[in-house]
Amino acid sequence: MSVPCKVLITAATGNVGPHAARHLLEAGVSVRALVVKDDPNIGRLPAGVELVEGDLGDPGSIDAALDGIKGVFWMWPFFTLGTETALDVLQKIEKQASRLVLVSSVGVHIGLEPRDNNCHAYLEGLIEDHTSDLEWTFLRTTGFMANALGFAPQVRNGGVVHFPYGAAARTSVHEGDLAAVGVRALTSDGHAGKRYLVTGPELLTQEEQLHIIGEEIGRELTWEDVHADAAREQMVAAGWPPDYADGALDYFKRLTGEPEVGSDVVREVTGKPARTFRDWARERADAFR
Ligand SMILES: NC(=O)c1ccc[n+]([C@@H]2O[C@H](COP(=O)([O-])OP(=O)(O)OC[C@H]3O[C@@H](n4cnc5c(N)ncnc54)[C@H](OP(=O)(O)O)[C@@H]3O)[C@@H](O)[C@H]2O)c1
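Above: inputs. Below: predicted complex with NAP.
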């Protein structure tokens, strides 16, 4: 199969999409981004990306974005959505594209996410069961290093971070490395049908991540564990379905006693070592100052 000459990125202005766009442009591929109307984050995308408006939750609105597309970097920015919506989107994708990369989750890899209540497991199942000619690759990623940006307001306002399970040990991945793996899967052969576990290169507790941020900005930062219920309340208020918040917090609890899985997929697929959390914290230090 030849390299797709035009790739659509969905959820393009989040943490991963701008990196994916850069890697694709560097590989000589035309990039189109599906963006919502009046998206305030369009400035994150590099110059040269074609912008087409559409709402992923309304499959009828994405036809123009898919027109002429040969590859899709598929991200699904919803916790849950009516099952028929994702299937409609997938069927529209298969009519146009020959390759698809799905950003999935480590939770599927370790069997924690049942198909019926999680978007990633559900989407993987849809692709497996409802496509025939599409060459697909799943990126079962651990949490993004960018998730630490959630601590930035507390770091800026006093330097004490209140969150549960500081001892949870994670193999968080640099979102740029995740994007690079996905772009390789779209632009080179040998990745069809692969379910890649994509992780960072090291195991660090949440508290250790915070201390690294502190070292990079030259301030001592403190972690204070709070009860999971406090975080749950905030997550639900921020729009997380309660079951999903419980699942995430249970997973953090599990990681206090059982470290997260790791892999060398970033190096194997891209030929470059995965970036460390310190690399990430240095790049993003200004967000914490
Ligand atoms: N964070 C993690 O640790 C983690 C772990 C495992 C898997 N994942 C997966 O990684 C994916 C990518 O994450 P991310 O942080 O880069 O992005 P994200 O937060 O999932 O998505 C944000 C993007 O989606 C856009 N968007 C929101 N609603 C939309 C709609 N109805 N139609 C079209 N676009 C819409 C947003 O536009 P606006 O800018 O206008 O809001 C923004 O560009 C996630 O979707 C998730 O499935 C994440």
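The radius of gyration is 19 Å.
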